[in-house]
Queue: 4 jobs
Job 1
Amino acid sequence: MDEPPVDTSLSSDAEFQAPIRVVLAKLGLDGHDRGLKVVARTLRDAGMEVIYLGLRQTTESIVAACEQEDADVIGLSMHNAGHLTLAPRMVQAVDQAGLRVPVVIGGIVPADDVPTLIDSGVAAVIGPGASAEDVVSAVRGAVERQISPR
Amino acid sequence: MVETMSGVPLDPSYGDGLQPGEYPFTRGLYPTGYRSKLWTMRMFAGFGTATDTNARFHALLRAGGTGLSTAFDMPTLMGRDSDHEWSVGEVGRAGVAVDTLADMEDLFAGIELDKVTTSMTINGPAAICMAMYVAVAEQGGVRRASLGGTIQNDILKEYQAQKEYIFPPRPSVRLVTDLVRFTTAEMPRWHPISISGYHIREAGSTAAQELAFTLANGFAYVEAAVAAGLDVDDFAPRLSFFFNAHSDFFEEIGKFRAARRIWATWMKDRYGATNPKSLMCRFHTQTAGVSLTAQQPENNIARVAIQALSAVLGGTQSLHTDSFDEALALPTEKAARIALRTQQIVAHETGAASVVDPLGGSDFVEWITDEMERQANEIFDHINQLGDGSMLEGAYAGIEDGYFVGEIADAAYRFEREVNAGRRIIVGVNEFTEGEDDEATLLSISHETEELQLKRLEKVRGDRDDEAVKASLAALVEAAERPDVNLMPPIIDAVRTYATEGEIVAALETVFGTYVETAVV
């Protein structure tokens, strides 16, 4: 089958001086990495710089990568119903390190849990079935809000 | 006599050429198919504490389920105890938590283990879990030889797709082979490996990649067991497979038919098997979790029904149907019951079980069966080359150089791009999206589970004889250092002292090391 053409409407980073640098990781034991790998390629095709840490990361290893890579945003993928525990921990770890880096969550997150996650400081939650546009705009939106908070 | 709803009498099969039950079994393993024995309706269940899952098991048996299937939580699957730092937030979440023999005792309480068959979906720590099951049965006076069931114990696909590995590939395959040697000698009713394409497909592969990677892994295990001194006909009759039933109806049926044909011809021609049972590709099927949508989740009931029918027309030996709410959370009891009822409707109302391989002889179905086989053969050639003529070495090489994960990630991305570009329609997601999304009632697991399990583990650690634990772990390490020693007996000794899964894994890691994947997008 032919490759569908690259959607260039996703690649405009005009309002930014440099491309967004995004750290992507799986936090903890969860090994479901299909979605995160698709997200990595989607964000890369949209012109972002993707630092893919892969599986079995800790809040410490993710914070360290953010510092080292001067990341603008963290994307975590969660498929094991541990998001209510793990996502707030990540936000806390970022704060404690004195970083201003928003945390975006994707994966199997029931709608009822989204307000709780947002209250705990998560910048955006991307649910199952999200389109490439949804993913790119959630990540970009999180970075924009961090730069000029409403 | 079997007849249609309108009273038309039916033969067990139709057609003049190859018959069901004839080598190479393209048309099915048995001449009379589901007339002699329906598929096993094996519903996967597990959440919370062992006591919670035990209650679900009893409910499934009461509802007419005929086999148990256990889902373990992430820490258990990864060989970590509930009180390990990695386990926070994951205890009892996506399956049941098992730390020690005490949890296994609760999990199967009140179930006669010689009367049911049990499937345990676990890989990295499979040998430990098997040891616990044997120990629980023997406590209850059931001999290990009378235990029937399956343990997944398919470590190769963990590096390729599911990513629940602990040790590096070679010592892991030794554990797989030790378990095969153990059950071959002592547990004749047990299936020691369920060679699984399910997770390869869920991770994004095509149907042909699922078929080829899975059977190639099967060949690798055959080579490993033969190298460990077994005769192919000693263990091959107890190997079984586990495939995905995805949404492309005829492609799936072609895949199932091709799987039987390829396995039979390779086992006979390449591995010299002579027992007819060694040539038979028996498989479990699960509908495609990844095909289920969070949008308009009730639509998933229709998807599951059609996928289930493809598995039945493809001749599966057992089947798990997914619950419609699985894109949102673990299934509620009601959703799990609807999924089981879906199988019962296929079995008892549709007539699909009346005639074996009813689509055999269709030009299209025969063509797509051949096409699946052709694509699989290309992949086998590549793996065989990677391994210089050994499928086992080819599996190791393909894991090391990222061949499997790369192929799967490419296919997954291609699929998502097609959906995103609207070239593939997913009903309710990128087309036909109007209509109220009713909020589904979801299963939620309270944090109390984790606290309960931590208390339970603390109590077990407090009550046991620590000296006995230490001695059993030391004996295990000593055995692990000698590649010719089968590790099953020392693992059984260790679980009987209530050594935890994490302690046993840590002991083995001192000899085997720990696997870390190279992160590649």
Note: The domain at 33-420 of chain B is CATH 3.20.20.240 (TIM Barrel).
Job 2
Amino acid sequence: MALPTYASPLERLWYYTYLTICVLIFLFLIAPILVVIPLSFNPDADFTLGAEFLDPATYSLRWYDTLLTLGHPATADAPRDDAWWSAVWERSTWVQAAKNSLWVGLWATILATTLGTIAALGLSRPEMPYRRLIMALLISPMIVPIIIIAVGMSFFYAKACVAPDSAMALIFGWMLSEKGCLANSHLGVIVAHAVLGIPFVIITVTATLSGFDQSLIRAAQSMGANPRTVFFKVIMPLILPGVISGALFAFVTSFDEVVAVLFIAGPDQQTIPRQMFNGIREAISPAILAVATILVVISVLLLATVEVLRRRSDRLRGVTGR
Amino acid sequence: MKKTLILTTALVGLGFAANADVTVMSWGGAYGEAQTEAFVKPFMAETGIKTIMVDSDNPATPVKAMVESGNVTVDVANIEYADAIRLCDEGILEPIDASTLPAGADGTPAIDDFLPGAITECGVSTDIWSNVFAYDNTKFPEGPTTVADFFDLEKFPGKRGLKKGAKAVLEFALMGDGVPASEVYDVLSTPEGVERAFAKLDTIKKDVVWWEAGSQAPQLLADGEVVMTTAYNGRIFAAAQNEGKPFQIVWDGHIYENEMFVIPKGAPNMEQAMEFIRFATSTEGLRASAQQISYGPARKSSMAEEIIYKDGKTVMAPHLPTAPENMANALETSADFWVDHDSELNERFQAWLAQ
Amino acid sequence: MADAAQILTTADGRPLKAALAAAQGRAKRRAFLLVLPLLLFVLLTFLVPIAYMLMRSVEHDGFAASAPALVEWFDENPDFDPANPPEEAFAALVQDLARMQEERTTGIAGTRINYSVPGSISMFKKGAREAAGLEPPYKEALLAVDANFGRPALWRGMASASNAYTAEFYLVASDRKLTDAGWARGGDKERIYLYLFGKTFMISALITVICLLLAFPVAHLLATLPMSKAALLMILVLLPFWTSLLVRTTAWIVLLQEQGVVNNLLVGLGLLDDKGRLSMMYNMTGTVVAMTHVLLPFMILPLYSVMRVIPPSYARAARSLGATSWTTFRRVYLPQTLPGIAAGSLLVFILAVGYYITPALVGGADGQLISNLIQFHMSKSNWSLAAAIAAMLLAAILILYWIYDRLVGIDRLKFG
């Protein structure tokens, strides 16, 4: 909103006040995220804030180092040879949590994106019956409070078990808990996170499909393409940016999810958010801030990817502007 | 396609962190670290059984929930004395055969080597610890010296840290109101006594910061969020010793008890769990624990020689809850009382808190 | 003949109407088949667990399963007088108490009765310990152990709990309590559930209003700036959206605690005395500030998408007709943003009502919301009660969701 030339002095004053207010609100949005970054380089265990934060010369990587050494069996002054690093990979608490988070996130994303994309294709067909009701149902994991979902899952997943030595146990057993149940198992966390990611996939993919010209499909069919060719050669390239955005949303949802993990996961499914949650409850050490800083960097990268993809998608679909 | 499937399967197998054989649930923080050093690391080195520690604010709560939902992931848990009896009565815990516990280093059978009451039907004592209150002596050089001082906001202004729960807090409030340690449970057994305890808490309610995990207490004190707080004595000791914090423990009116190792009913690795308990509660195990944190061992043979802290110079005896000079006005938690009243008083406490 | 001529047929002689219907049916089935795998997945992993939870909210066999003699007696005597139960009833109770002691079910049975009649657990434990040694007449013997065994409220509670299916948990979650005369509202000191529900809705409304006030100018600025600049500023709105919730919560703790950045800054600038540091964390203030920050993007985005398509010409027309800028805003601009306000406010309110993490971490004692109470009861193994509270919250959310769908339409949800 540029200031019109006929604005009165009062309007001018109001306009600049308004701009100041906006700057303050942006500051409110961004400052908390940025403030953790310099604090994570704080060399002291003592977590007080002084002027030294303005001086990068005092910065230290001490707390990033503790991310490697927490849970590490060796003593602090042990030489950092290959054996030391392989122990980091196998034993360090934060590294284990990162591995679990990544793998759970990856599988949840694959599950949510595959099922979600196929469903979105059906949902955006004009013939789809009960469209509104089904949409409402599929979006509901985002609306229903996570605590309710987690409570329901913790009741049900403890009972959702396979009989030992059954065919199901042979196929899924290695991903279930020792008792063959969904609770306390990697599979349980994966499906829980997949459900939570589905609304995001549905929303982004149907949004991409809403600008999709259905006549392109008919054109391809009239030229003799079979359904498979139509899907991979025509539909997929056009909706791919939406699918990837949805997948990234689903991944972030899983990567940041802690309540369901707290309720249904066992000690073997320690994830980064769970580790952070416990850390924050007990005491915010600068180590938590080091993790936070890493996560901020990751989210910046993800956001950049999504923005680039969306612009590309808009350009491809011929939509101008944002 | 098949190849990728096999590949991804293999990747997932590699990807997830490996499972543990024995999972021990304890209270986290300095206590958890001490137990990792004293029990877990030597146990793994000696037996090769992969053992991990998981933390909880109070392991008795998740253990009960796990057993009742038939979903047990913990093999050994570290819980309070009254809870060890209460949960045993309720069929939540496995009975432990005391005769399989190792004899003392001097050959005394375990039953005689442990202090009276330190072995129950379902539990074996890991240490004797205490609820104390502590303050930052840079803020109050003259210091509070009695429980009554804790409730005196005029003489010692500032926020107070208190554990979020009825147990030990109600007793503490009554002692702050002038009830001598020996009469606390008689008073608390009456409805008027309960009212009296809550009335005393009401006087400081708006100045209380409630903590749940044991490690929050020293942190609140260190951050200056409170000027004094109740805490588990070992946590304060660790902060003062290891990080040089100016924390001072007040032993007046401290509330001590045994901490117990128990095995939840349906634990996935019962045998290894028992092996862990035998290892940890041996003469050497309990002694090693007391070298890591200021909680007293419950075996006579562990105290046969003077216990020195891991820094190599601090003598532990005066820092233990059971040291004679700390027992002047001390209260032993009544297991009988809490076995019966735990649920009700905690419910009442929760309602009081939400008001 | 006349009829047949009017019916259009396809090339192979079938009526066109039927052929069309068949084709449409096929298309419908195909579309539905695409959605089916996901529907099944959501059904199994999401809907069934929630249905299971609802079932738990009306089922608890803790007492019914451990007191067979009393259950039988209650079955035979449905119309007994709770104020004065006969000797056989006491005999059955003593028999069951002895059995509970043996099978270690005192805790679970007592807990079940304790929900409606507080104080029952310790009575049951005391009674069960003595039961084996009691001699008839059982009524007097048991009353000698604890006079409360004669309370009508206890007998009402046991009669009700002898059936595994019950609506009692909803009564308890509405702060009702079983008294000697029947169900009644609990005393002032015991009413917490409805109070917390009310508090949760109030706080959510407050957060919604703050979000709206903060989001409005920002969305307006974004909507009126040239596209390239707006896109750049949009990043500032989207970054918090993409940043881990736990990171943002951590950041607020670091900023607002008593020794935190804000307090240090104020003390450093001399605006605040070192002793007079503000308490902004671990209380309601902390919850409100951190939740506002988390939910603000959910308000900005819908507002922005509505404001972007408001043609500036209306405002210009109003101004040229002599309206002041305030009137223009109030009478012309604001009404056009109402769909965005409705969409954003409803979404923020819905998300706020069920919030768990932030209040759990920064709420302290008085910043807890209803979700935290659900978690509390879950951790204490009060599953049926937790499920009942969750079901009540779920009902509220579903109503709001339905309103949202009516007013805004769920397919209008978008991110970024």
Note: The mean pLDDT of chain C is 89.
Job 3
Amino acid sequence: MNKRFEKHVNGRKDLFIPFIVAGDPSEETTINLALMLQEEGANVIELGIPYSDPLADGPVIQRASLRALEHGMSLEKAMGLVKQMREKGLEIPVVIFTYYNLLLQLGEERFFALVRENDIDGLLVPDLPFEESEEWRASCNANETALISLVAPTTSDKRLQAISKEATGFLYCVSSLGVTGTRTDFHSSVFTFLDRVKEHSMIPVAVGFGVSAPEQVEKLKEHCDGVIVGSAIIRQVEEQVEVLKKEASQKEGIDQIRAYVRNLISPYGKVKIHS
Amino acid sequence: MSTSIPDQRGRYGRYGGKYVPETAMYALEELEQSLNEAMTDQEFMKSYHEELKKYSGRPTPITHAENLSKRLGGAQIYLKREDLNHTGAHKLNNAIGQALLAVRMGKEKIVAETGAGQHGVAAATVAARFGLECKVFMGEEDIRRQELNVFRMKLLGAEVVPVSSGSKTLKDATNEAIRYWVANVEDTFYLIGSVVGPHPYPKMVRDFQRVIGDESREQMAALPDKVIACVGGGSNAMGMFYPFLKDDVRLIGVEAAGKGIHTGEHAATLSEGRLGVIHGSITYLLQNETGQIQEPHSISAGLDYPGIGPEHAYLNETGRVTYTGITDNEALDALKVLSEEEGIIPAIESAHALSEAIKQAPDMNENEVILVCLSGRGDKDVHTIMEHLGGDVNE
């Protein structure tokens, strides 16, 4: 069992798992965003690796990927950023979110060498479904790296059972079909879906895809152990992109995003809001 | 050759599989089950073959290119005339099959991706024929380049959805079609245009295109010595080759070498690509060192794809099929020659296969036979041809 997951994730009911894209819009911003998110109560950082063809992502994350690719971000460079985050005090687990092709090109051996070198805790591969994941699952287990599994509302009970049995870290529930991106409201069936997953899962259950308002977090609280927030944060980054790019104003931009995040996860009561 | 290709997991050796988000797995399982039922249902297969005959005009003939063969002074060249299929290319064979399957599955809408617009037109055509709503995803860049096909699709009642993500071409249109499909799988069928994508797509498209090879085997007096077809994603080639796999026939797939392999501007996936994942399948693809997918180049939009069907990757590895490359200029020369010698203007895609035949024929005997899959007609390419050959083609 991975120690950081044990300390920061296990048994919690208020998981806040933000997703940021490595290098969007700069390496320095990514490091500072991760540190800010930890201060605001994040339990895990999902570090997205930009890809030319992100099949599971909506337009917001697609644009973030392009911004990061413009200056040559790669899986290997992104993993190197985690070391810098650790040096500056990041204690929570970091999960690398990468499409499978990037992982294949880096290779298993090199990937796990970088995992050890940079204190990385988990891996999430959105286009590596359960059926194709056996080999990577075994090597993740051997390297004390959580392999985050996804389940969707269309996942059958039989599949859900098989996936939960092998899942490590936390179980990622996709709130609705389609791609990542903010949604104004969830279909009511998401709650029955989450209750169904909770029944099967032995590890924390977190929900993602479309989480973008405190009202949603409030409603979801009773049905799962946490939320994954991606596009909503990336959209904030996009709005602040020019501010974040300049060294003089970067802190200002990050504080804007801090305020947004603080409000979003306020139902968890993690950080006392000072008036 | 094993008959159980692909295996249960959709693998052709180490190629193929299902590398898609969990949200798409249900849709693929549903499709696989329906496909297996349909392919063993005699009524379904009968209606598919009836449509091919009475709507699409099959079987397409085989033409002996006598003048061309005489000029080359070697093997006899025969052409499988997919250009005479309805809508002008082999694409409709597959579109008919998948549309019938969509209807059988109770889906009311289809989505498709298109590059040059040929598959988009085929999808729009069958949607009109079978009363389905049709959305075609097409890159903004391609929409600009293929105005005429965009108009044809609209005329057929389809909605053309511009794709502005990534490089705004075929690979991005495919990404967008998959994204849309996954979000709307309950009432929508994804009608993919080539032997690519996650299992069971490569197998399904091959099985709906094998009519090309099946007909050819029946029509030829004897087995040809060589069969040549062009390969982008590889659907006309797979359809042509598949029924010949167990025969003593040399099979040759021709990739687009674009401006020349050494220029880096080509679509020669098997010779220049590396193993990776594209659109849900493990295969060869053009990519940079870190794994970002690269834009291919070919004068022919139909071959301008950075990946290749997984079964081709497998047949390349086993050596059963030999893959070569033909440049833009070589293809244009072949196109001109066929137009002049036989009165047939081939699609630039098909001209790649023809060019390889023209290269190989002189070294063969007069009693040997090369069968070329003439996958489509060149009407759609007239603008491109004019741009490259100039106004005066006889210069």
Note: The radius of gyration of chain B is 19 Å.
Job 4
Amino acid sequence: MASDEHIIDLKGVSKSFGDKKILDNINLYIRKGEFVTLLGPSGCGKTTTLRLIAGFLAPDEGEILLDGKDISGIPPYKRPFNTVFQRYALFPHLDVYDNIAFGLKLRKVPSEEIDQRVRKVLKLVSMTDYEERDVDSLSGGQQQRVAIARALVNQPEILLLDEPLAALDLKLRKDMQIELKEMHRELGITFIYVTHDQEEALTLSDTIVVMDEGRIQQIGTPTEVYNEPVNSFVADFIGESNILNGTMIRDRRVSFIGHEFDCVDEGFGENNPVDVVVRPEDIYFTKKEEKTQFTATVRSCTFKGVHYEMYVDTDTGYELMIQDYDAYPVDSVVRLYIDPDDIQVMRKERTCNTFEGEMADETHVEMLGGTFECLPQAGLKAGDKVRVEVAFDKVDLLDHQEEGELAGEVHFLLYKGDHYHLTILTEDGDHLWVDTDDIWDKGDLVGINFAPEDLKISKRNEA
Amino acid sequence: MKKFLAQCYIWILMVLLYAPLVFIAVFSFTEGKVMGRWNGFSTRLYQNLFTGQMQGSSSLIAAVENTLLIALVSAAVSMLLGTIAAIGLHNMSGRGRRALTFLNNIPMINPDVITGVSLFLLFIFLHFTQGYLSVILSHISFGTPYVVLSVLPKLRQMNPNTYEAALDLGATPSQALWKVLIPQLRPGMISGFILAFTMSLDDFAVTFFTRGTIGLETLSTYIYADARKGGLTPELRPLMTLIFLIILVLLLFINVRQAKMQKSE
């Protein structure tokens, strides 16, 4: 399988469309023979990364290396890669045979050899006897097989797949996943796979690259990414999870949901705020009093096929999701514990909002494209460059955009057991983070205000 | 009663629309010099038309040849230009595309006389000798927008990834154009060609103003001149009947093709 030799290197790659930065300093290597998945929500830059590798786009900055050589100047038709497109992109005016033979005919391969190779690859995708068929007469799954065959027949060094299974129904998708995995094993070539489906990524990949907002969030094997997410985005995006605010008391001891737990993480300092992830299947029920770490009341219980999914309220007032093979009746009080191994501690990306601004006068500060009232600032005059800090829970969100000094949109939300942590994208493209008990939905338009006494202003030194 | 009136209305319309054509077709089978006088059934006029035994036959045949030549050449060039323009338009974004599509539509709505006169003035201004070339150029200028309009929907239906797929499989951009793009656009290009061809075939005003003084006659200008000389040459009656039938067949062909294509989608 994957050797240590790099086949593709992306070094400091950035790409913008107009004003919008799609990729921001992507660094990534792909080993020969590896099955790599670029995983992320729509708009995260995963497809753009694939198109850069394929050569349909050129990076604004950085370089893309193939076997150590820069390929920026090489057009797509000279790169030894082939792509399976999201909507198949078969040629409707050609039959199955001619679609697959297209690349070989261009390269003037002798017709007996074309014949041989087309038949072989049709066998590989289980489409023998379909040569003469019109591609429009095939089902979605069959078209996808032809698209894969059309790419593989050229014996590429790398197969690029852009959400190839997104248009298929669930059952077919599962079957195709297994077949793709087998094909990868059989052919031994490198697969670069783009998907937004985390389950697909976990099933197929040797390595998963989790992306969000044009940046790589984490690179790792499926088990690493699942068990040891590096931040709350990865934890939330991959699998189900309870993401909670915690405090690292000392090495191997962390407090969250109002209780202290042993854990296995070290090096986070003492009494530092952290994010804690506990997977719903890692919270265990017990009958023994000495094992009990906390108690909770079951609020709901839903059968999910293999397991039950329960929401419980802890004795300290936090909501947790638990998955277990046994059901516990609603309103019953249960005893719970978590293994130290199953507690994943993550460094907090930020502990409050920090903005850069400028004093307008003694009681007003300009930042984020608006002007805000603040308490009189001694020692600061108009025009001074300042840094403004606002605590997550001190941002006022308003139902109507026009009521706020700033207008924004709820971009991402995370439930943290007893409150929501929202990421707000302002109209000017700035981010701010808000802790709130109110329920908002992704995409809600909000007005934003700050109370004057909540702005903590300090002078910023010009570097 | 209401239904009966509605039926009558459509039949009256049909009669008004088609009576002149039927009239010409019927009187193409009689020898009378003056239209409207039935001298008994005869195919003499058809024979004359094809054997050339009639008064001024050589100039009539020449006019037919000119008409066909101009229509073929201008429709072919229009098809080429219009297809390229449509591909360009399709790949433009928002505002520019809307503006150019609007500009593309104007020549089609613009009255022929105005197009003719303005082209006439343009050729004079440029000291361009008027003759075959100026007529063909003029016909290209009003034929191209029709091709653009019939190719654009094909581009919209096309999976935009097929062009990239061709590049991905090793085709150079020009190979991708010929082997993948053009075959998918072909139905639209053919419809556009036929439209441009028929528009050129029956054009009078633009030809009249741009043919210059070398005595170039197309069918429409010939008939115009012939009618002013005192009565139409009788052989024009079978000729028009034939042209009408050819156009009818062409139209049926286009419609059947479109119906078939819609069905297969």
Note: The longest helix of chain A spans residues 170-187.
